Amino acid sequence: MSDQTIDPYQRLQIVRNDDGTITRLLKLPDTPASPDPTLPNSPDVLSKDVHLDQSKSTWVRIYLPRHALDNSSTSSSSKLPLVVNFHGGGFITFSASSSLVHDFALNSAAQLSAVVVSVEYRLAPEHRLPAAYEDAMDALHCIRSAEDDWLRRYADLSQCFLMGGIAGANIAYHAGLRAAAEAQSLEPIKIRGLILHQPFFGGAQRSGSELRLVNDPVLPLC
Fold first, then answer.
1. According to the model, what pLDDT value does residue 74 have?
2. Full set of structural domains in the chain with CATH
3. Which end of the chain is more exposed for a tag (fewer CB within 10 A), N or C?
């Protein structure tokens, strides 16, 4: 393996602290939730934040296509499929409220005509894996309880898909494995499929592409 010629911490604009945490210098723009359909110029997809585990500072942002509010029926046949989304960011950056993540989830809800739940999971290195996998399962169990009125009234839990990009796809994959092992305890949730965008997978032994791209200018190995 060739010597590193790129400082990944400088590239990602993060500073490694002595206590094992990192300081994220890059301040990414956030977008607030928009839950009120009565506001002027309210979007076609509404969104709201719901606490998951306050002790872990985890939460979910729920996206609901506005047209669902016009349907007074609560039968399962009239409900929308459910997509649970896990954002990318190398396990260390971004948030469910980051504008890029928010816009993607909002557009997914609009184009798929689905209820989308975007999960704010704990980030590494402060919270190393499997913390994010555990947060993913916490989110599924929270959805299962259907205490939120949007989930209870408009989401078909029997038509659930797990979605993620890059690191988020890794989380979706491992959440899918755990959900399969806990299928009975998750009922009435039924995982119908995984939607994985450029999934990130790695192991103890470096793959050929990892060795070849060790100093990649966009995403070098840390």
1. 60
2. 29-66+76-200 (3.40.50.1820)
3. N
What is the token pair recorded at 137?
A: 């399962």
How far is Cα 18 from Cα 134, in angstroms, rounded to an integer? 26
CA distance linking residue 158 with residue 160, whole number of Å: 6
Q: CB 18: neighbour CB atoms within 10 A?
A: 5
User: Is residue 56 very low, low, confident or very high in pLDDT (cuts 50, 70, 90)?
Assistant: very high
Q: What does the alpha-carbon distance between residue 59 and residue 138 come to, in Å, rounded to a whole number?
A: 10
Length of the chain: 222
Q: How confident is the model at residue 165 (pLDDT cuts 50, 70, 90)?
A: very high
User: What's the pTM?
Assistant: 0.90
Alpha helices in 30-166 (DSSP H): 99-112, 131-145, 149-154
In whole angstroms, give the CA distance from residue 16 to residue 6.
15
